[in-house]
Amino acid sequence: MYIHCICTFPIFESTLSRANLPRNMIENSMFEEEPDVVDLAKDSTFPALDPDEVAFEPRSSRLLVRGLGQHDMDEDEEDCESSARLLGMSFMNRSAAHRSSSSPYTRQAPPRSCSRPSGRTMIVCVLFLVIVASLTMVMYFLPGCNFTKRGCQRTNKTTPSEQVYPVSTNGELFPWAQLRLPRSIHPLSYDLTLDPDLDNMTFTGRTVISMSVLHNTKLIVLHSSHLNITKATFKPGDGEARDVTVLEYKPRQQIAVKFSEELKTGQYCVLTLDYSANLSHTYDGFYNSSYTDTDGNKRVLAATQFEPLAARKAFPCFDEPSFKATFLIRISRKPTYLTLSNMPQAKSTPLLNGLIQDEFEKTIVNMSTYLVAFIVANFTPISSHVSETQVSVYSVPDKKEQTDYALDTACKLLEFYNDFFEITYPLKKLDLVAIPDFLAGAMENWGLITFRETSLLVGKQSSNLEKQVVASVVAHELAHQWFGNLVTMRWWNDLWLNEGFATYMQYMSLQTVLPQLDIGNLFLAVRFRALDDDALNSSHAVSMDVNKPEQVEEMFDSVSYEKGASILLMLNASLPGDQQFRKGIIQYLKQFSGLNTDTNDLWNSLTQVFSAQHPNVSEMMSSWTSQKGFPLVTVSRKGGQVTLTQEHFLLTSDNATQTSSLWNIPVTYVTDNCSLAPECRQMFNLKTKSGKTQKSVKWLKLNYRNTGFYIVDYGDEGWAALISALSNNVSVLTQEDRASLIHNIFALSRLGRVSFHQVLNLLKYMSNETQTSPVTEALLQLNVLYQLLDQRQEHSLVARMKSYIKHQFASLMDKQTWKEEEEESVSKQELRSALLKMACSLNEEKCIKQARAQFKQYVESNGTLRIPGDLQQVVFTVAAQSNEDWETLLSMYGQATYDAEKRKMLRGLASTQDPRRIVWILKAGLRGGLIQTQELPLVIYTVCHGFAGYLFVWDFIQENWDSLIEKFPVGSFAIQTIIKSATSQFSTQAHLNQVEGFFSSLKERGSQMRSVQEALETIRLNQRWMDKNLPTLQKWL
């Protein structure tokens, strides 16, 4: 799934330029490894464990460790945690917690002489002991638990343990008490019949599931959510079908069928379920959507979005990635509609009620339920062929002319992937469908990829910058047809195996297939943002335990996507030659084709290929996936000796969060002797705390072209040498290396390792900088500080910061034109967009005047005079600051047909500083209609970046929280974006208290989300940075 990212670039939405990823490695033994400085065997003091690092066994994992080779738990073997809770045994933990050294109830020092207790005291003590002994015996013999060294871990088999199980909707006990389904039954095939009624927004269905019994069991447990099951029958093997009762436990979205006699291992059986439901009014499950055509008519349709946990909202199923099966799907429709599903249509049958039933071919591959998809709509396609596969792009009829670029790009990429992976795409057709109402950026359903219209449709006159967005999403989703669909992660804890690989291949493929899109700078920028997110203590490991539905939703974040892609890039860059990594992933795909995997399977598979050149792939890469965060590599020099030391780069650096983590780092570096060409790159694996060398060089630049996932501190002398080198010759380093120096020094300033004075010293060279990546990174970092100062109402500092930015970038800003030039590179468009957005946001007179003139010409031409795509955002934002032009822009927004342009208009409208308009646009986005609810996260993000808007947003979120989590699931990327947007610029204790108080009051409605912890941590960091650096800024600026 492609997350529709909003908050990656606070300054500019445009994307950044191509970089040739280094693949050659010159082995160098310059550094000698030095043992860890800390000897843990001798050191008896250990830092406190981070909450994320505390090992525990969740209830839902006890069954899983048995795997497929063990029987299911019987009722009398079930986890008794619920029983303990019912019996009130949690008092044991509480009383233990209360026995702390800080308790006011401490024993007094004994008197100097002993006296014999009175008779009354003796009687009271005896009675107390009798009561304690009685209570202990009663609790010991209560049903439900035997006390072992591990506590209440198994049931007392002499008594029933029914309290373990939750209660079904009908009052009976539900026979399963885990989040994960039992492994005793495995689905083989689904036969689905669906009858949607788009007039009444309802549907009925029949699901026939053919299953195999893997272990003796008396129950079948599967998923169902918001489905009214009207009839259920069960047919065991060759036996007769009989009606069965279905139990439902709604909190876990599970249903179950119990049997009096065991189903035997190896037995084949069929469960048939008839049901009815409403089409979903949110963006998951089988949901309704609508749009208005050019004639003003409202058109309705129905589409699906099942990842991660919503297939169960459309049909009863085993809704976990490892339960792969085949699917045969039938859908009824009106004659004026068409239907689409994963496979080609096999036949159409007229029904007596005037409808038509379309039947699709049975899938020729086993699929996870989250990849199933179907659509009922009146879309129009265009098609082409790649080998034996028909590739089609579908859209609403009015936008058919905007589909050509997507079709051409998809065909090129499919051909590339078929060749690159040496595994041909297995299905007969590949459909790409633009859905008018779609929350994610896109979804990789096998054979039926669904997209937002902005992610798939571009006009014939669209700029390469706009085409880059579409090409990126298409490349990501097509990569999923191998990584995710063909080989699927076993459980959501390893989501990165899907999303990290798809993200990496998205950038790698476009550098080869469409080099004119300059995709390299975009990949560099997203790696910087992944480092920023992963520097928080509230981050998480790439592969981590996932035990709750909201935790599944939260895995769709920058760690799974961008960090996953970044460590794959780092691995590739550490290998000799340019084909080793490709050979490794081909081996992985072929070895596990059609199966489910975990992270260890990947590393073990790659080790088989790399063993000669890189024998410790598993050892090296496990350090990057099993622990959160990344290393800070510090360079220190003394005479001719250079020492590299690693530690955890952690912005929240109090004692409670310190760890002794080490990474196996493939450190790359260049020196003043040779610094530009790939052949200059030297490499060393830093496995221990530090490594040393004897080398006489003027300077070293580590992390060549930023292919590694770490940050470097060069020390005062090292930074001074690099700053001097750049001042003398800006081209002494690649643009990627210059950008990484800028990113790293701002990060180190936030950490407190370098002064802000050093940051500004580095930026002095920027007057000679002309390349996109360094300029856009510097603008982004400065804009973050500018926004913090502005919203802290440090007016004099804001004015001086504004003057500093204008002065620093004045020559570059003045060179930018407002006309689209032929053959202009994407990189140049990105640079122009970022510079002019900054200039206008600082109210630079020339910029404002030009933007207003562009908008006036655009309006007067009735839209026939096109604003260049990379300048539309700045023009619409400037226009929206005028009352008259805001109203004009709103009218144009309602009539716009090009979705990329329409989205920029919306961002312009949301940038208004008028309080009434801010309130209106927030409410309009929540309500839906003119502004689709799918755009509300974008509206909130944009409003928050205005001086007037961010406090309105915070109030809006508090007042409308229940409505927000009704539309967007708790933990989802949309909710993550809303929380981050609303709180990331707070920097005072008062705001910290407000945010903490509000979210703690939510309890199960969102208080435990990781994004809440990230928000609180970010506010504290903002507060700390401002307190430390305000005096420096006041003095220096």
TrEMBL record:
Protein name (database record): Leucyl/cystinyl aminopeptidase
Key words of the record: Aminopeptidase, Glycoprotein, Hydrolase, Membrane, Metal-binding, Metalloprotease, Protease, Signal-anchor, Transmembrane, Transmembrane helix, Zinc
Membrane disposition: Single-pass type II membrane protein
Residue numbers marked as site, Transition state stabilizer: 561
Phylogenetic classification of the source organism: Eukaryota, Metazoa, Chordata, Craniata, Vertebrata
Gene Ontology CC: cytoplasm; endomembrane system; extracellular space; plasma membrane
MF-aspect GO terms: metalloaminopeptidase activity; peptide binding; zinc ion binding
Signal peptide: none
Cofactor note: Binds 1 zinc ion per subunit.
